[in-house]
Amino acid sequence: MTRLRGKLGDRLLHAYTWLIIAWLSSPIAVMILFGFNDKKSKSNTSWQGFTLRWYQELFGISDLTTALFNSIYIAVASTVVTVVIGTMLGLALGRHRFKGRGVTNFLVFAAISTPELVMGASLLSLFVSANLPRDALTITIAHVLFSLSFVTVTVRARVVTLDPSLEEAARDLGATGWGTFRQVTLPAIMPGVAAGAMLAFALSIDDYVVTSFVNGSTITFPLWIIGSVKTGIPPQVNVMGTLIFGIGVLIAIANAVVARRRT
Amino acid sequence: MRRLTPYLLALPAWMWLAIFLVVPMAAMASVSLQTGNAIDGFAMTFSVSNYTDTLSRYSTQLVRSLVYGGAATVAMLLIGYPVAYWIAFKGGHRKSMYLFLLLLPFFVSFVLRTISWGFLLADDGILFGTLKGWGVLPADFHVLATAFAVIAGLTYNWLPFMILPIYVALERVDPRVVEAAQDLYASRTAAFRRVVLPLSLPGVFAGVLMTFVPATADPVNAQVLGGTSNTMIGNIIQTTYLTNLQYPTASALSFTLMAMLLVGIFAYARALGTENVLEAAAR
Q1: Minimal CA–CA distance to B90: which of B180, B160, B171, B168?
Q2: Where is the ABC transmembrane type-1 domain (chain B) (predicted)?
């Protein structure tokens, strides 16, 4: 009897899990669907027939296009900077014992746990006090700040699993310090670095809260969307969201396939 | 030279964290003690009036944020725990597929996700509009611009961050421990309550931390889903900073929010038992 009831409970939980997955995915389905909506009125809220028009007119709204490309440029720039300095810090924390390691770990943790809102507000306080004009540069600075800890933690986790005798062997075989790093250390920690880079890119292109404080008059994709909520979101936003979603999912699946083949 | 390596490696990141995290916090602390206005400029007066003023003026929004954030966190825990449990114990070889499906929403921009969610809940949208057309719901039924919509939005947006840490903790539980409990005549419920649940508490703790702080401070859900009568403290801080340019007031508000969150976390850590927390932190 208990066994039977256990089986039933498992089935209910199984169905429940799928229900939650469906719930989490429903807004995505809506977003994709309404990118194909042949809307006639100003608002894009009711289904009026299928069209590919918005895919053809993807770059028809110039402000939106500018915002999208601002987001992409900022994401690329902040990812490059974050990956370089975050990997260096991850190596230092994962490999070396040094004075100030505890403080550094605390700072990395503090940067992760500060609410975005407070981080944005405090950066604005700094930029206002220093009379620094707010533009794409200040946005990039902010994005590096909130991604840095995530890259550091990801790389550190990978460095800790690395066998130090590999590097020693390379040294014994006459490799220089830089040669050892480039040919032994870097390839070994590459999965961590790549994961960190993807995370940094995703965090940057998605950010609204911190950016809203430090953007000045530069508009990014999330800022543009929030700004047009009251007047109605044009279907092009759905199409861009769909394309970003598609590319992201493809990269994730490719990544998983490659990782599976390696093991 | 070799001794210097870790310092050289850490230097750029240190500088970034010092200049853009530590200094701004100090700058904000100093601004929060200044008085003045945007036109004549602000001057340091070491007055705490900003704090006392904001506390009395915005207490409604402060309390509301804590209540909404807390309610969403409880909802996430209740909704998410069974999912984490089922995937960890019954997911079999498809565990990673289920986790991937749970993470799918993160491939869509947070702002866009929230708007699509609002779109689903719209008064005449595809869901309620259709139901109203069928006469299932009364014509004046609405969800948008209510407390429920905001809490549901917060719950929706951070649910995966609750499920993942609980899943990680449950995944580590050896099924043989549960079998041993049942061999010793524990019922299924007792085995869960006395063996599985305590072992998953570090995951619950991590999940609550990862969701409560961002949900309480979030301005987006209240703005998109809450209408004008559900403003949270995040919205107040944003408008005070960006529209009203009242930097001292906004800084004081930011610190008040941080302090409240810290107090909340410590109270919660005390309630759950320091040992569990230390254990969770050690992992």
Answers
A1: B171
A2: 62-268
